[in-house]
Design brief:
This protein is of the alpha/beta class. Among the domains are: 224 residues, Glycosidases (TIM Barrel, Alpha-Beta Barrel); 70 residues, Immunoglobulin-like (Sandwich), CATH 2.60.40. The protein contains eleven helices and 27 strands. It has an eight-stranded parallel β-barrel, surrounded by four helices. A four-stranded antiparallel beta sheet has the order 1-2-6-5, with no helix packed on it. A hairpin with a 2-residue loop joins β21 and β22.
Length: 490
Amino acid sequence: MNYIDQGSALSRKVPNRKLSKKNSLFYQQSVFENEEFLQKYEKNVDQLQTVIEEPELKEVIQCRNEKFFQLLEQIIKVESSIKDFAKGYQKFGFIVSDNGITYREWAPNAQELKLNEFSCTTDNGGNWEVFIPKDDDDNHQIVHGSTLTTYCNDLQRVSVWSQVKNGEQAIFWNPENKYEFQQQQLQQKQLSKGLKINKQSINQLQNIPGYNAILITQQVLMALDINQINPDDLKKTIDNLHKQGLLILMDIDHQIIGQYLKSWDGSEFQYVRQGTDQLDYGKWEVLRLLLSNLSFWITEYQIDGFKFSNIDLTDDIDIAVYLMLANDLIHDLLPNGINIINSFEYPALCRTIKEGGLGFDFKLSQTQTKQYLPKTLFEITEDLIQVQQLNALLFGQGVISDGKDNNLMLIESQIGWLETEFAEINVIDFVIEVKRSKYIFLLNLTNQNRTIKLNYTINKVLNHEGYNWKQIDDNITEIQIQSQYGLIIE
């Protein structure tokens, strides 16, 4: 069966569609003529700030921007707005109404589709649907907590749009009383120089001293496994952490999503590129699913931002356009949201879309980097040596850490040495000396112990109680810095 691009098919059917002013920026106008559009985007590539500053990037930026605007206009024609396009979770999966339950799934290769014993019908465009009315006693025929199995041809599947699972089984989650958030999402974005993120599993979320954000380890799309935590308990936890002033971010692992979706309807070309585990980011329903996943976590669980993992955009314009759409959507839904991507040698990751970039707030760099980079996060793992951890804290504008008891993080929180962006950097016999605020940092990144002389006195070493130095005279201090070690002195 050949793949049908529903976006192209639908947009051809509505070439003169008039959109309501309430729902669309493009009311009775071309996407490129609307005043609100021009305030948000810049179509003329020569006017993009990134191109003005780096004209050698013009060709690559022009190529991806043209495709971005083309796809955005197509989304507007078909769905009224990108926010409406990203509400797929309100259309697909298990939709509960006063009259019954509707189940919808996109499975273009299916010859037959059933939900438990209920047979679905198709529109011959890849969409399958069944409506399950209430019984004579006005009760849903599927009760809260029931197991839901999708039969696609001869395959047993879990709906792609499942929101609750029990292991490898979809669960119909429809309790009489659902938890209502008491706290709104944080409206003030954390300053980059003060962002400290601790990685935690979804069932063990807690406030760790020294951090102001939590990164929830990856989930597979929208599905929450009740073996870990149920929806109401997760909402209560997030609500409580928001009250404590913490940001809640989520890791989106695109490689795991691709592996999970591969051959869902029995074909090799539904959600992934044929013969691979890589998502096909150029397809309409792939984009709908991925963008809806982001919208779902923001809307349903008040997630404050995302880290995009295992996504390689080096040679793929479709991936770049997806990331632009994702960042555009997230910052539309949540203006102060935070989006992070692994650092690539790719142009303008952290410039806004209007400036010619992809729109990320942060890129993730290695701790060995010795430059003070704007909009950069450093990842600290427990196996890094102390000098690497200190280097990350000092030269980065924030960190992601999986440590539960990080003394350096606690010290940083107490003294706030990143309160000023100005840093004076010197090298003394291969030891890097960084002066910031009233503190001095000595980093020995070499594999030899170094004894250096400083032209000032030392009051104390903050991160090593009892560390010794030799006072030569009133202005000269001699101190040994061990190999792969760092000191914070006052």
